[in-house]
Every structure is written in structure tokens, then in C-alpha cells.
Amino acid sequence: MAKIVLQDIATKAPKNLDKDTVKEQTAKILEQLDELQNLLFAESKHSVLVVIQGMDGSGKDGVIRNVLGNMNPQGVSVKSYKAPTAEELSHDFLWRIHQYAPAKGMIQVFNRSHYEDILVTRVHGWCNDDTAKKRMQAINDFEKLMQEHNNTHILKFYLHISPEEQQERLTERMQDPAKMWKYNEKDFEEAKLWDVYMKMYEDCFEHCDKPEWTIVPADQNWYKEYIIANALLDLLKGLDMQYPGLKK
Question: Hey, which of 126, 147, 174, 194 has its CA 20 to 30 A from 164?
Fold first, then answer.
């Protein structure tokens, strides 16, 4: 695929789109996803991994709540990755990831993911370029393993927010009682490293592109949710699934 340059990609929806119309379309998609997820679970031949990456404030939690939270919780699992624990650091970097790979019939969501080990680690100099290249190859092998040996279908989304919108959202966390629990003063320090993060993300997109990443304009939640819901709908419809018949 062509090299992705994030500064050349819009963070907002096309101007010709009507917000209310798109939200109505999303609502219809979510109804279809509920049925398709039930079919995925019943047939139990495929699994789905949804990887959600993005800068602080890009709306990862909102996507999980508003798109994936509408489906049967028996068939959807969410794993949020934060800084590794001492036990996790004593293993290879994929050890804490592999144990949450989706079983057949399941949709597994990663809120942040194995990609943190070639993103934040490089930004802060905890991982040099040579190590990062080896990790990228390990990630490619890991994703190939899931796809070829467990019929896992992988969707990778980068929530593309503008630095201006990020600052607004981070500031809102200090003012809105419903969002104060998300506040972390370190987020503002990380935001100062924006250009370095963009460079690391672009390197990630270039070298870990099978399957390819979807760059999701994320300044407007209604459009972001539509893009992700529609991508999941296309994937599940394309699996041509059928409910199992009576067991004999």
C-alpha cells in the first residue's frame, strides 16, 4: 500500500455528509451487527479481532461503548492494554497479547494493543529501531498465525484526531464531572510529543500492513462510529455464515 502520511488525511467527515442521516445509517448498521454477531457465535467457525489505536482523547472508549457495546456480551470481549506489569515484562512482549487472541465465534476488541510496544516505547527511547524492526516482524508473524490457523479476521483502526481537538477533549476531562475519572496530567506531556508519535505511527502503518490499517477521521464521534460499524458490517456479511442445523 502507499505510504500513509497522517497530516495529509482529514480528521473530519466530508462536508457533504449530513450528521443526522449518517447517525440513522449507523443505527441500522448496529441492528444488523447484533444479528451477525449472534450468527458468528452460533456458527463458531470464524473469530474477529478489532484493534483500536489512537492518541489520548481520540475516543477509543466511546467506540467500544457505542459500536461494540450494542452486541451480546457473551460473544464480545474487550481487553484494554496499559503499561506492562512486572510479570508481563518478564516475558516476551507478545506474551500478554496472545492469551487474549479470540476464540472461534468471538469478537475480541483490543483497546490499545501489541502495537504499543513499537509506538510509545520508541517515542520514549525504551525500544531502539533495531528492536522495533524485530518486533514488527514478530507482530506480522503473530497476526499471520491468527489468520491462517484460527480463521481470525483482523480489523485495525487508527483513530485520527487533530491536535486541536485532542486539547479540547483533554481540557474537558478537567471540567466535566462525568469525565474527570479519565484525567491524567501525563496526557498533556504526551501530547507535546505529537510529531514523534505521528512518525512512529506512520512507520507502523508501513511495516505492519497485512491486514492494512483503516485511518478513521475521529474529530466527530458520529462519523468515527459510522466508519467502524460499517467496516465490521462488511466483514461479517462477507463471511457468508449460516446457523448450524440440529445436532444428530
Answer: 126
Give every CB contact of residue 79 below 8 A, 6+ residues apart in sequence. 100, 108, 109, 110, 111
130-144 pLDDT per residue, tens? 999 999 999 999 999
Query: Could you report the per-residue pLDDT of 79-90, keeping only the tens digit for each?
Result: 999 999 999 999
CATH number of the domain that 224 lies in? 3.40.50.300
pTM: 0.95
SS3 50: strand
Query: Does a structural domain hold residue 78?
Result: yes
Q: What per-residue string of b and e applies to 51-75 under the rule 16 or more CB within 10 Å gives b?
A: bbbbbbbbbbeebbebbbebbeeeb
How many domains in the chain?
1
Domain contains 3: no
